Amino acid sequence: MSDIPVQVLATDAAIDLVRKLHAKYGELMFHQSGGCCDGSSPMCYPRGEFLVGDSDVQLGTVDGEPFYMSKSQFEYWKHTQLTLDVVPGRGGMFSLDGPEGLRFLIRSRVFTDEEIRALRDAGRI
């Protein structure tokens, strides 16, 4: 396998909401919460309003918006492909999806052995 698997994907519904939020707030960013106040939820912020640092890993982008996760949580999730989706309900109280009547959530699947090898070879895990 020569292609490196994508570590974060998004459903069409998630991309629609991302675009709506981008139109309202400008550039965005995502951070996969580690389970504090809002549980383990993907949180959406105006870009730069959530500080990321050496303890965070950028998994990829969702419609051009960066998606991060803490290194400690990444160690648990690194063998899975994440898919950002939306469902009806209230999002995290600090996340921009909160007032929209929808909330972001993560679905996941375990990478195949071949995909894991490709990610390791590329230094992604």
What would you say this structure looks like, in words?
- The chain contains three helices and seven strands; from the N terminus they run E-H-E-E-E-E-H-E-E-H.
- A hairpin with a 2-residue loop joins strand 4 (56-62) and strand 5.
- The protein has one domain (8-121): Sandwich (Hypothetical Protein Aq_1857, Chain: A), CATH 2.60.300.
- The protein is globular, with a radius of gyration of 14 Å.
- It has 125 residues and is of the alpha/beta class.
- 24% of the residues lie in helices and 35% in strands.
- A four-stranded mixed β-sheet has the order 3-2-5-4.
- The mean pLDDT is 90.
Low-confidence stretches: none
Radius of gyration: 14 Å
Distance between the termini: 16 Å
The number of distinct β-strands equals 7
What does the main sheet amount to? 4 strands, mixed
The portion of residues forming beta strands comes to: 35-45%
Named CATH architecture: Sandwich
* Series of H and E elements: EHEEEEHEEH
**What is the spatial order of strands in the main beta sheet?**
3-2-5-4
Number of domains: 1
User: Count of helical segments?
Assistant: 3
- According to CATH, what is the topology? Hypothetical Protein Aq_1857, Chain: A
Backbone shape: globular
In the CATH hierarchy, what is the class? Answer: Mainly Beta
Mean pLDDT: 90
- Helicity, in percent? 10-25%
